[in-house]
Amino acid sequence: xxxxPIAAGLAVALLGLNIAAAAPAGPVIKIGHVAATSGPIxxxxxxxxxxxxxxxxxxxxxxxxxxxGKRYRIELDAEDDAGDPRQGTAVAQKMVDAKVVxxxxxxxxxxxxxxxxxxxxxxxxxx
Length: 127
What we know:
Radius of gyration: 14 Å
């Protein structure tokens, strides 16, 4: 599955965020992105990450997000799972520890399935 800027923007919207009209302020909302950015399918993972980065940049350029009257800037925390289930679960735990509010990824079912339990247990939505 490939994520485009539209898909990444949709991911942000699905996390309950609304686009604001003014410049983003200091508070940050961290969203994770995980895909294979090394290894045999790195070109796909890098495309996915670039799309997510573009979506975040567009949201921030439009003023970030407004939640309950407070403005937030979106920050993308991108990690490489190398298409490896063991690395995928390690990265998933890293995302939990980083307190991301949601994750776009993983790229393949081989990494998504084992990582999904970690996100579920932490209450972090995964798209």
